[in-house]
């Protein structure tokens, strides 16, 4: 499955209602953030990061839950079942399609982890990315189970959380550190 097929599968055409809701939320969040920047409660980098984070989360929830067609309630409660299938496929000399699904689930949450420290304006401990990844992914999986719009999997929660932690550790914290260094006022010498 190439990237275009993945995009078409997970991002179907929006209805007018979905578009109105999406853009209404974006306009509201943008207005609130603009007011916060003008009042000097947050910096513009934080406002842009929060706006990107909210936009991305709406797209993720839309593609993984709300834009899917209802089906039957499905769940896979075994931990690491997909990793076991992929491992055995590699042992037999071929790449299983689940391998790409695992990588996509990890990659899906890297931007969330990357934006967390930028949105807060300071480097964050990895445990915050861990908790955030677990909470957001569990919300998605729980909604999929409750609304019958996908397969509830503990593996997805693990993969998404791993992506969130990697995003914060490899992108979010280093970029935030650099931005803090660049934007810090110069130190006076006596």
How would you sum up this structure, described in words?
This is VanZ family protein. Keywords: Membrane, Transmembrane, Transmembrane helix. It comes from Coprococcus hominis (ex Arizal et al. 2022). Pfam families: VanZ. The structure is a single chain. This protein is mostly helical and 190 residues long. 74% of the residues lie in helices and 3% in strands. It contains seven helices and two strands, in the order αααβαααβα. A two-stranded parallel ribbon has the order 1-2. Helix 2 runs antiparallel to helix 3, helix 3 runs antiparallel to helix 5 and helix 6 packs antiparallel against helix 7. The protein is globular. The mean pLDDT is 86.
Tell me briefly what this model is.
With 190 residues, the protein is mostly helical. The chain has helices at 3-10, 16-38, 44-66, 81-91, 97-120, 126-147, 154-183, and strands at 74-76, 151-153.
Write the layout of secondary structure elements.
Layout (H helix, E strand, L loop, with lengths): L2 H8 L5 H23 L5 H23 L7 E3 L4 H11 L5 H24 L5 H22 L3 E3 H30 L7
Parallel strand pairs: 1-2
Helix pairs in contact: 2-3, 3-5, 4-5, 5-7, 6-7
Protein name: VanZ family protein
Pfam families: VanZ
Keywords: Membrane, Transmembrane, Transmembrane helix
